[in-house]
Amino acid sequence: MKKVVPRILTSRVKALTQTLKEVRHSELSTWLSTALELHDYQCNWPDPDMVLSNYRNEEETAKDIVLLIGELVRHVEKLKARVRWGSNALKGLRNLGK
């Protein structure tokens, strides 16, 4: 069986966020917005004036990265019982949780 990884263009993340809010998954929409801000940071780097990025420095960025990964691990843990996981995926999840 062929495995598929869902992907979405960054230009469509805002619409996905809005849809998640409509179906009462607003906690995920908050984290998607954070992921989008981190993506902007990746393109524009720290911006002390906050014109091109919502992050003034690397410390602010690192804090959101850690929070986002923690939230991702929490949601994946919830799905763990409902999805068949390969050994590589389980190993990666354990490493993320460290």
Describe this structure in words.
The chain is mainly α and 98 residues long. The protein has one domain. 62% of the residues lie in helices and 0% in strands. The protein has four helices and no strands. It has helices at residues 13-22, 26-44, 58-79, 87-96.
Secondary structure: elements and pairs:
Blueprint: H1 13-22, H2 26-44, H3 58-79, H4 87-96
Proportion of residues in extended strands = under 5%
Structural class: mainly alpha
Rg, Cα atoms, Å:
16 Å
Kindly state the mean pLDDT as a whole number?
80
Largest sheet: none
Number of strands: 0
Taking the alpha carbons of the first and last residues, their distance comes to 31 Å
User: Helices and strands, in N-to-C order?
Assistant: HHHH
Count every helix, treating DSSP H or I runs of 4 or more residues as helices.
Answer: 4
Domain module count: 1
- Helicity range of the residues? 55-70%
Query: So what's the overall shape?
Result: globular
> Could you list the spans in which at least 5 consecutive residues all have pLDDT below 50?
none
Provide a quick synopsis of the model:
The chain is an all-alpha fold and about 100 residues long. It has helices spanning about 15-20, 25-45, 60-80, 85-95. It has one domain (about 10-95).
Jot down its keywords.
98 residues; globular; mainly alpha
